[in-house]
Write a structure and sequence with these properties.
- There is one protein chain.
- By secondary structure, the chain is α+β, with helices and mostly antiparallel strands.
- 61% of the residues lie in helices and 15% in strands.
- The strands form 2 sheets. It has a 5-stranded mixed β-sheet, with helices on both faces. Strands 4-5 form a two-stranded antiparallel ribbon.
- The radius of gyration is 29 Å and the shape is elongated.
- The N and C termini lie far apart (68 Å).
């Protein structure tokens, strides 16, 4: 269907005129054929006009319905491409921010998680980008499988993911997040038994904080998790409390 649409699409004024002449010629030929083969047959007047419309106009109507269907599917495909990450099928950065912010504004408890694949660059450098893509897909699958209805997940960019756990307590978030710090298996072309871990920075939703401010805090917690051993989950709120105690 894509090739047919490309062939039919006019590529200039001359192309438009040629296609218009072609369609008019088709209608004229259909009318001539109808007159030659069926005009001499005794038909009721209503049957005559119905049959004429079916044989002459039917193919054109079917064609334009097919074009309309193609356009609707194309628009749907483009909409999905603008909202989803092409590799993992998760929400892209913009969509995640939109949906997570709506969840935050609905009130109630919530926890924002920022997740980053540990030493992901080594996978790309050692096994190639195709294996790296396989790794990201495995991460996305694990994250989706362990979330609840109402949670929002997205790929923020590269090997970074984000999750907004709606109506989640710290304890619930910790249980969910701990599952993500366990080595995640994935396959490479020549290495079927590879694993990767995730480091996680978390922050508790605060009505006084915007989502952007929460991201900054979660990113700081994620950095701390990376710098202190990786494959762990750290809450920004607990980091701040520990700093106050030391002071």
């Amino acid at each position: 269907m894509d090739r047919l649409m490309q062939w039919l699409a006019p590529k200039g004024a001359m192309g438009f005129v040629l296609r218009l002449i072609g369609l008019i010629s088709f209608v004229a030929a259909a009318n001539v054929a109808f007159g030659v083969f069926l005009d001499d047959h005794p038909l009721h007047e209503l049957s005559y006009y119905f049959l004429h419309a079916t044989l002459v106009g039917g193919p054109l109507i079917a064609f334009f319905l097919a074009v309309s269907t193609f356009q609707i599917r194309l628009q749907r495909r483009l909409w999905l491409l603008s909202r989803k990450d092409g590799l993992t099928g998760l929400d892209n950065r913009r969509t995640f921010f939109d949906r997570a912010d709506k969840r935050r504004k609905q009130g109630g408890r919530g926890v924002l998680l920022m997740l980053d694949a540990d030493r992901f660059k080594n996978i790309n450098d050692t096994y190639g980008h195709q294996t790296g893509d396989s790794c990201l897909k495995a991460i996305a699958y694990l994250l989706q499988r362990n979330l609840r209805d109402g949670d929002v997940i997205g790929r923020i960019g590269g090997e970074e993911f984000a999750i907004y756990l709606q109506d989640a307590t710290v304890e619930q978030a910790r249980v969910i997040g701990t599952r993500f710090t366990i080595p995640i298996p994935f396959k490479g072309d020549n290495s079927p038994h590879l694993t990767i871990t995730l480091s996680i920075g978390a922050v508790i939703a605060n009505p006084q904080k915007t989502l952007d401010e929460m991201f900054i805090s979660a990113d700081k917690a994620l950095y701390h998790a990376k710098e202190n051993g990786r494959a762990q989950m750290i809450f920004w709120d607990e980091l701040r409390a520990a700093d106050r105690v030391r002071i």
